[in-house]
Amino acid sequence: MNRYSVLLWACGLILSISAHAGSISGEAFLNLNAKVKGWYFVGALEAMKQTRDTYLSASEIDAAEFDKVWEACISGRSVRQHLAIVEAWLNAHPERWHEPAIQLIFEAERESCEDANAI
Questions:
Q1: How many CB atoms lie within 10 A of CB 26?
Q2: What is the DSSP string of 70-116?
């Protein structure tokens, strides 16, 4: 296992654990430096995919919608593109900054997917 895989695994584990203890807020996510924000985002995506059923049980979306968004939009974008989408969405929705970042990240991705008529 290379260093990247270990770091990615660790981020996913931390995010999976913190999802039960409470995620960072959208505002805290916006305040991270660019490098940490990128690693958090990669970990958040990995945690969402690896803990799909757990994530969905705490969300208003169903598995079919999650899979549709994942395949149509999330899996094909670069991290830089994802971060631009999420940051723009968060800046347009300051009333939701108190909510868990992992949920806001998916909401931003889902809306951008709908806006692109990909789903």
A1: 27
A2: IIIIITTS-HHHHHHHHHHHHHH-GGGTTSBHHHHHHHHHHHHHHHT
Check if the beta carbon of residue 37 is closer than 8 Å to that of residue 29: yes
pLDDT tens track of the chain, all 119 residues?
A: 555 444 444 455 444 444 444 579 999 999 999 999 999 988 888 887 777 666 566 566 677 777 887 888 888 888 899 999 999 999 999 999 999 898 898 889 889 988 777 66
Nearest to 19 by CA among 62, 54, 45, 65: 54
Region of residue 60 (left: phi > 0; alpha: psi -120 to 50; beta: else): alpha
**Residue 119, CB-side half-sphere exposure with 13 Å CA sphere:** 18
What is the model's pTM?
0.68
Pairwise CA distance, residues 77 & 61, whole Å? 21
